[in-house]
Amino acid sequence: MLVSTIGIVGALIIGQSAVQAGIVSPLLVIIVAVTALASFTIPNYNLTLAVRVLRFVFMFSAAFFGFYGIALLWTFMTVKLATQKSFGVPFLSPVAPASDASMDVFLRGPAYAMNQRPKFLFTQKRDRQQPVTRPWSPQTSQTARQKSKKGKGKQ
Fold first, then answer.
1. pLDDT tens digit string along 77-134?
2. pLDDT tens-digit series, residues 62-76
3. What is the DSSP string of 56-121?
């Protein structure tokens, strides 16, 4: 706890002196401070380290090439993630190769309506769950009413 406090105080002193010396602009100090504070919200430690490295790569790219460096690096990262595969499944699978079957990523329907697994998983069994009686489903209750009406007429 004491180490992080000393680090924050040290960063404030160094940032203030860098602005007063004219080495960096105040806006840059604010942006770096906001990104540093935002990195504390990431719960996974390994992901925090990866984001920290990427943050420095983006800062150096912006320092040398400006906005074009950021845009070029962002494009490179997007292409790299879109071409990656994990266990034969594309890394951005629900989003990148868009298909109508994987649209439940953005707007999810009720659980009883999602009967099949997404196509990008390439599973042997397409059914997500066994067929069960769903009294809360409008189709099931309507079918049950029709069957009960037919059953009463036969007696």
1. 988 888 888 888 778 777 766 666 666 677 777 776 777 777 777 778 877 776 666 6
2. 889 989 999 999 999
3. HHHHHHHHHHTHHHHHHHHHHHHHHHHH-EETTEETTTTTSS--GGGGGGTS---GGG--B--GGG
Q: What gap in Å lies between CA 18 and CA 12, rounded to an integer?
A: 10
Whole-angstrom distance, CA of residue 123 vs CA of residue 109: 21
Q: How many CB atoms lie within 10 A of CB 61?
A: 19
Nearest to 60 by CA among 50, 51, 70: 70
C-alpha closest to that of 118 among 137, 106, 105, 130: 105
Return the number of other C-beta atoms located less than 10 Å from residue 118's C-beta.
Answer: 19
Structure tokens at 116: 């099949």
Tokens representing 37? 């504070």
Q: What angle separates helix 45-65 from helix 26-39, to the nearest 10 degrees? A: 160
pTM of this structure: 0.52
CA 88 to mean position of chain CA atoms: 20
Rounded Cα distance, 113 and 108, in Å? 10
